[in-house]
Amino acid sequence: MNYLLTKLNDTFKDKKAYFFIVLIMFCLGISFGLYTVKYMSTSDRNDLTNYFFSFTNYIGNEPVNYGKLLFEVIKKNTLIIVPIFILGLTFFGTPIILVLDLLKGFTLGYTFSFMVTTFEGRGLGLALVSVIPQNIIYIPCFIALSVISLSMSTEKFKEKYFKHGKIKDFFLAGVLNKLIIIITLFSIGILIETYISPSLIKFVAKKFYL
């Protein structure tokens, strides 16, 4: 694990500007998510509250279909990883990658804030066990992947329009190894989200909501 973390840390040594930009967009997304919940209309809040209680009642009483859940979690993460990497191979991918960073932050901020504020603090436990465990791994990997793709896309842009960039074999330059590390860590997060988080959610749901 220390080796993997060391290799990911190397990604940022020469890419601090990209890291800073990605982090700003991600944090802005979280802020937008928090404020969206704060200014949500009463009818929308009631609809989501009813859905939330239906969800907790279902997950608290029904057995978890781990096979189906694993498929859904893999699909969800694939829809994040693949587009960001493909955009990194294009000269126009930079703004779209940043928008995806914004949306990822928005989703996390919205989900966490809704669970906490809607139930006047009672949702904190559920928010923690449903959002935090897997995202401890997902978020650093997501940021690392965004930094790598942003760097590649920027080099493509420079080469196409300013002739200052120098096309490199990114895979030979070590990007492939970094991607393997990121995917490995993502896989650990997927296993946590599939096999650990549901048990934690079920426990909290039964303890406080049923």
Automatic annotation (TrEMBL):
Keywords: Membrane, Transmembrane, Transmembrane helix. The keyword Transmembrane applies. InterPro entries: SpoIIM (IPR014196), SpoIIM-like (IPR002798). The chain crosses the membrane at residues 17-37, 78-103, 123-150, 170-192. It comes from the Bacteria. Pfam families: SpoIIM. This is Stage II sporulation protein M. It comes from Clostridium puniceum.
